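Hi,

Apologies if this is the wrong queue. I'm a grad student, and the batch job for Cytochrome B6 from Geothermobacter hydrogeniphilus produced an output file that my downstream script rejects. I'm not sure whether the problem is my script or the file. Here is the sequence I used:
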Amino acid sequence: MPQNELPSSQRRTFLTVLLAGLGTALAAMAAWPLLRYLSPRDRGDADAKVTLARDKVPVGGAKFIDFRGRPAVVLQPKPGEFVALTAVCTHLGCIVKWVNAKQEFLCPCHGGRFSSSGQVLGGPPPKPLESFNVKLDGDKLVIG
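Support response: The file is valid. Your script probably expects a header line. Output copied below for reference.
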């Protein structure tokens, strides 16, 4: 047997260890997104407030913002009346879209529909969108 050749049992052991390591790495890469999906997300600072200029929210329109680390939306259904809601669908967590022509939210994933106040109008969502307090402070809105 030449000096640089290993016995077949050592080769087999080396290949087994190599394949086991590769399989473990692939399993971890596949499991990570699943674990992130199933684990609760950080809600951010629960007492955090967001300040927004009042003129950034058009009458009958929506302004999407980041609130406590999650997407949210501020609406002005009527002049001087403001509503703040989470932009995360209560069905599977997709981000809802504002349909200006219908004055409602639509979830692009499964067709869930929500009113401008966050109530479920149709589709699979089990509960309304979470709402947040909105206070007027001069020409600014304070959300939270």
